[in-house]
């Protein structure tokens, strides 16, 4: 058996075409969504991600507000840029690219929650815990959207999430256990005693530990969906959390690159369009 590929690149293309129509609909009403990014330092991966986000926006007719700051930028300087984007009505949503090397919680908290297209503001994470509508984190939503579009059954599925990070594992557990997804989630982490035993139970495995090849073929139930979200760099190349031979056992595989990464961008674009639509429906005071 060889697994079906959960193709994030193709799905990003499809979602872009869908969103392009919604952006055109906004344009007819004189509204242009605008994405702001705040990038601190010269990490090449971060520069690539931010560049890709603005390229996506240009394709859709979303305006870009790019603020690149040197690695020497202080907390106060970054906060001043956040204040500027909060106040700019043309910037309908923005994000602070991580990592910054600064006090990230203070930066996240300073973003206007209604412009938080990353869904990582403490207030929006609070709405997620409470089950109320709010911007949702892009990578976990990208994972759910990828599963949906390839018709991987989610309701009733046993999902093993490996990693409890703020941007993937922790919010993904919250999203998948909502009534609308109805999965049963096991959240594994460095304190998990027998990771192989937990993974073996799962219909869906999401590997977001950042440990190369932590998921191997003999841990995976035949026919399971395995999504690789791990990003490590080994000799300058991206290394995922999932070993190559998993594709011989799994029913579906989201590769890395080409799986969840592009979906993160697709959900960012979705959050930008939704934030602009919401701002248009309820103009600010
Ligand atoms: N505030 C904030 N928001 C983020 O959304 C955010 C962040 N900080 N910090 C870093 C992570 C990482 N991230 C990715 C985005 C796109 C790809 C992506 O499109 N990857 C392609 C190409 C990868 C390559 O070849 O380098 C792929 O997987 O096919 C990957 C990873 C967003 N992040």
Automatic annotation (TrEMBL):
GO molecular function: methenyltetrahydrofolate cyclohydrolase activity; methylenetetrahydrofolate dehydrogenase (NADP+) activity
Job of this protein: Catalyzes the oxidation of 5,10-methylenetetrahydrofolate to 5,10-methenyltetrahydrofolate and then the hydrolysis of 5,10-methenyltetrahydrofolate to 10-formyltetrahydrofolate.
Positions of the Tetrahydrofolate dehydrogenase/cyclohydrolase NAD(P)-binding domain: 137-279
Alphabetized CDD domains for the sequence: NAD_bind_m-THF_DH_Cyclohyd
UniProt xrefs under InterPro entries: Aminoacid_DH-like_N_sf, NAD(P)-bd_dom_sf, THF_DH/CycHdrlase, THF_DH/CycHdrlase_cat_dom, THF_DH/CycHdrlase_NAD-bd_dom
Homology family: Belongs to the tetrahydrofolate dehydrogenase/cyclohydrolase family.
Key word Nucleotidyltransferase present: no
Enzyme Commission number(s) of this protein: 1.5.1.5, 3.5.4.9
Self-association and partners: Homodimer.
Catalytic activity: (6R)-5,10-methenyltetrahydrofolate + H2O = (6R)-10-formyltetrahydrofolate + H(+); (6R)-5,10-methylene-5,6,7,8-tetrahydrofolate + NADP(+) = (6R)-5,10-methenyltetrahydrofolate + NADPH
GO biological process, one term: tetrahydrofolate interconversion
Ranges for domain Tetrahydrofolate dehydrogenase/cyclohydrolase catalytic: 6-118
Name the record gives this protein: Bifunctional protein FolD
Binding site for NADP(+): 163-165, 231
Gene behind the chain: folD
Pathway it works in: One-carbon metabolism; tetrahydrofolate interconversion
HAMAP family named among the record's database cross-references: THF_DHG_CYH (MF_01576)
Assigned keywords, A-Z: Amino-acid biosynthesis, Histidine biosynthesis, Hydrolase, Methionine biosynthesis, Multifunctional enzyme, NADP, One-carbon metabolism, Oxidoreductase, Purine biosynthesis
A single cellular component GO annotation: cytosol
UniProt xrefs under Gene3D superfamilies: Leucine Dehydrogenase, chain A, domain 1 (3.40.50.10860), NAD(P)-binding Rossmann-like Domain (3.40.50.720)
């Amino acid at each position: 058996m060889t697994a079906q590929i959960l193709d994030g690149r193709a799905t990003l293309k499809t979602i872009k075409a869908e969103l392009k129509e919604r952006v055109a609909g906004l344009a007819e009403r004189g509204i242009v969504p605008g994405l702001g990014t705040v990038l601190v330092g010269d990490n090449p991966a971060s520069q690539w991600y931010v560049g890709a986000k603005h390229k996506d926006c240009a394709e859709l007719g979303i305006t870009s507000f790019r603020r690149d700051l040197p690695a020497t930028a202080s907390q106060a300087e970054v906060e001043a840029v956040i204040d500027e984007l909060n106040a700019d009505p043309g910037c309908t949503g923005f994000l602070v690219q991580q990592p910054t090397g600064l006090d990230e919680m203070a930066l996240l908290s300073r973003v206007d929650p209604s412009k938080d297209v990353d869904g990582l503001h403490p207030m929006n994470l609070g709405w997620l815990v409470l089950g109320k509508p709010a911007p949702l984190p892009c990578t976990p939503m990208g994972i759910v959207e990828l599963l949906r579009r390839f018709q991987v059954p989610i309701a009733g599925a046993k999902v093993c999430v490996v990693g409890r990070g703020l941007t993937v594992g922790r919010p993904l557990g919250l999203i998948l256990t909502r009534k609308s997804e109805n999965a049963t989630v096991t959240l594994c982490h460095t304190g998990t005693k027998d990771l192989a035993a937990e993974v073996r139970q799962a219909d869906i495995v999401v590997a977001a530990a950042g440990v190369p090849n932590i998921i191997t073929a003999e841990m995976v139930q035949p026919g399971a969906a395995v999504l690789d979200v791990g990003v490590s760099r080994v000799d300058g190349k991206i290394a995922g959390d999932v070993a190559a031979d998993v594709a011989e056992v799994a029913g579906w595989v989201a590769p890395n690159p080409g799986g969840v990464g592009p979906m993160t961008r697709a959900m960012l674009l979705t959050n930008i369009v939704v934030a602009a639509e919401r701002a248009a429906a309820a103009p600010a005071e």
